[in-house]
């Protein structure tokens, strides 16, 4: 059983191996397919009466498949890393631990993900193994997005002022339903998925304490640069961010399995929802269906947990949650 660890728990050797694995995939031209997969899935899969607009809904975002699609995406990436080094497992970045001082998170260490971009250098990352000056991480220019030069870009805090807090995350964990009609990204669409993806804002819920996008979306905006675009996996921190999103979903599933087992599989819609988002729909461009990625123990991995959640995970591992 693979253990996905908090970035704060990684040893220096584990950090070095993870970075080396990413660089090896990049040099071999095997990293780019993850950027392309993420970009290509952002084609609308809408119902006949819905607008054909890629900002409305697609096969991996703005709807129920957001969490299962990215769970499969992470497993694909982890498998690719393990073809280079069998010891590698994607770690997770719990950004709530850094909400007070986000720019000094250990994830931005010079030997790990590197730091912020430099405004006077087209927002290109200046330090670390993925910096433009290091020459190891070629990223195309995107003039249409305001990035006319090559290289990895970040803009900490430029687009939104803060990372989500533990209190923000707690609101998502209190949701009892996975998703609700019309299964979209509207601020009034209730459910765990829409809350965690970040679309339930102050407009839709006065309990939200910070303006603007929330949770998952807020992290992309706070980092900025290449994390803003449909090609956001250009920044390797994408995988650490989404690994935490997957952990949050797994923790929510564990709680649902304890108290609401009769509601299993704790996913909606089972059918008659948007194309690509129903329980038996295939997670394109791969072979597994949404129903196949519902239980992380069956998928062969687990998450390092703080002491308060250890009991929850143990109970989940023994539960009859998965089909």
Low-confidence region ranges: 308-323
Overall 3D form: globular
Q: SS-based structural class?
A: mainly alpha
CATH architecture: Orthogonal Bundle
Please indicate the percent range of residues in DSSP E strands (runs of 2 or more).
Answer: under 5%
Q: Sheet with the most strands? A: 2 strands, parallel
- Gyration radius, in Å: 19 Å
Task: Indicate the topology.
Elements: E1 2-4, H1 12-27, H2 32-40, H3 66-82, E2 117-118, E3 124-125, H4 166-173, H5 192-197, H6 215-223, H7 237-259, H8 296-299, E4 301-303, H9 307-317
Parallel strand pairs: 1-4
Antiparallel strand pairs: 2-3
Structural write-up:
By secondary structure, the chain is mainly α. The protein has a single domain (2-317), classed as Di-copper center containing domain from catechol oxidase (di-copper center containing domain from catechol oxidase, Orthogonal Bundle), CATH 1.10.1280. Helix content is 32%, strand content 3%. The protein contains nine helices and four strands, in the order βαααββαααααβα. The strands form two sheets. A two-stranded parallel sheet has the order 1-4. β2 (117-118) and β3 (124-125) form a beta hairpin. α3 (66-82) packs across α7 (237-259). The radius of gyration is 19 Å and the shape is globular. The model is unreliable at 308-323 (pLDDT under 50).
């Amino acid at each position: 059983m693979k253990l996905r660890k908090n970035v704060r728990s990684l040893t220096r050797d584990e950090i070095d191996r993870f970075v080396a694995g990413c660089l090896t995939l990049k040099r071999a031209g095997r990293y780019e397919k993850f950027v392309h997969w993420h970009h290509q899935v952002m084609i609308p899969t809408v119902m006949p009466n819905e607008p054909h607009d890629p900002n409305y809904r697609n096969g991996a975002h703005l709807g129920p498949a957001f969490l299962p699609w990215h769970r499969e995406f992470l497993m694909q990436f982890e498998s690719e890393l393990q073809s280079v080094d069998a010891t590698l497992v994607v770690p997770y970045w719990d950004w709530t631990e850094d909400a007070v001082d986000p720019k000094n998170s250990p994830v931005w260490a010079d030997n790990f993900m590197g730091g912020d971009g430099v405004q006077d250098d087209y927002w290109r990352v200046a330090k670390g193994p993925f910096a433009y000056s290091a020459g190891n991480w070629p990223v195309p220019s995107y003039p249409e997005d305001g990035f006319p030069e090559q290289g990895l870009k970040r803009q900490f805090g430029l687009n939104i002022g803060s990372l989500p807090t533990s209190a923000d995350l707690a609101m998502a964990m209190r949701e009892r339903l996975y998703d609700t009609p019309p299964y979209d990204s509207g601020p009034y669409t209730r459910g765990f998925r829409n809350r965690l993806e970040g679309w339930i804002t102050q407009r839709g819920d006065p309990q939200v304490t910070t303006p603007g996008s929330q949770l998952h979306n807020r992290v992309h905006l706070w980092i900025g640069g290449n994390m803003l675009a449909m090609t956001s996996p250009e920044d390797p921190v994408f995988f650490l961010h989404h690994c935490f999103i997957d952990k949050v979903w797994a923790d929510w599933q564990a709680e649902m399995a304890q108290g609401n087992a009769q509601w299993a599989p704790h996913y909606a819609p089972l059918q008659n929802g948007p194309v690509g988002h129903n329980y038996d729909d295939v997670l394109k461009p791969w072979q597994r269906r949404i129903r196949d990625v519902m239980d992380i123990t069956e998928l062969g991995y687990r998450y390092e947990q703080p002491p308060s959640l250890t009991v929850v995970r143990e109970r989940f591992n023994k539960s009859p949650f998965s089909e």
